[in-house]
Design goal:
Elements: E1 2-5, H1 11-21, H2 28-37, E2 43-48, E3 51-65, E4 68-80, H3 89-103, E5 108-111, H4 116-119, E6 125-135, H5 137-142, E7 149-152, H6 159-169, H7 181-194, E8 196-202, E9 205-215, E10 218-226, H8 229-240, E11 248-254, E12 273-284, H9 287-291, E13 302-309, E14 318-325, E15 328-333, H10 334-348, E16 361-364, H11 365-373, H12 378-383, E17 388-389, H13 394-407
Parallel strand pairs: 4-5, 10-11, 13-16
Antiparallel strand pairs: 1-2, 2-3, 3-4, 5-12, 6-11, 6-12, 7-8, 8-9, 9-10, 13-14, 14-15, 16-17
Helix pairs in contact: 2-7
Amino acid sequence: MQFRRAKESDSKDIKSLWAYCFEKPDEAFFQWFFSKIYEHDNVVVAEEQGNIAAAVHLRPYEICLRGNSLLVDYAVGLATHPAARGNGIGKKLLKNAFRLSRSNGNSTMILMPSDASFYQPLGCSFYVHQWKRETSPEWLGKVGSKPSWVKTLSSPDEWELLDGIYRTFIKGRNGFSIREESSWRRLIEGQLEEGYIAVVGDETGAAGYLFYGVNDTHLLAGEMAYSSNKGREELYFFMAGHRGSIARCSWFEPLDDRSFYYWPNGAEHTYIENKTFPFMMCRIIDPVAAMDGMPCDKDLDGEFSFQLVDSVLSENNGIYMLNAENGYIHALQDDVFYNLRIHVEDMAGVDLDHHIPEPAFCMNIPALNELVFGASDFKELMHQDMITWLTTDESKREKVTRFMMKVWNKQANWINEWY
């Protein structure tokens, strides 16, 4: 079994795998994806006896992580040939994709799981859940507000109208995709292939937008963004205006949203359903690169080390030292730290008499994912028994806990990229 980057000659087999597992060649999304998005060198394949047994697409994205811009690969379209299933090829392919992505300079990968139980053993962790909300248009109208105007978009040339709303919507949030003109144009083109885009507003300008489609009597909004609560209510009103032609409206909103406090739901009657929707997972593939240079409280200083266990990528196992200085985190892995010290001593001809601090605790890669991405904080991981203390000194435990709570505090995470 060989794992490698795809070649142009593999494209026919890659398309066949996609068609078997996902959309068919005559469907609009398939045609758009493989004509506008697909690039063979962004695909990793498993080849066996000259045949493509599995493939995964690594789409390059730029996300905002704790105020820093971070380049990641977004793994989509993992597909295995039916004759090759049951042999763990998909997991082996992803493991190799992790390493190929790392060799390309990435520290992290993200993916949207169809079944998290497949990806969790590979060290992937959720960093984004969303609210999935559903109700009848009649009930949605009760919490809506009529906009001054509504327009529908018909061209990617109108991307700036959406961009202003999006930039307001993501303020204070973490983990979202950084969208520029080219990404907006691709996104709008893809949406218009199968659905619609509506924008609502008033005399001050655009206040919200909705990416949606209608399937029989169901209106499903794949993305909703607004610049104010009034903009959100105007989007509710727009969806409610489809009464008579649809029976249900479904949409997604960030998990930090608390508008459901003001809905008419009660203990016995639920008029507007509100449930969590597992959305995006993350996987740190280069811990030092993921941690080093991350901003922190400018008043925070000090250093300590911890032990990391990665059962999938063995090169990540070891002791890591974190140092907080001048508002940034600096990270080193034990062998790198040791080699650097030896080099400095040899060059300077002095003994630095410095050692790696004994690790204070041990955690696995899913715990590190959650900390770095802000899905959980250190105390939450302690309560989940994901932190194993290696020191019995209670004062040191308290000091390390305070340090970790300041280094990686919990974030309001959101992202809404579907492919």
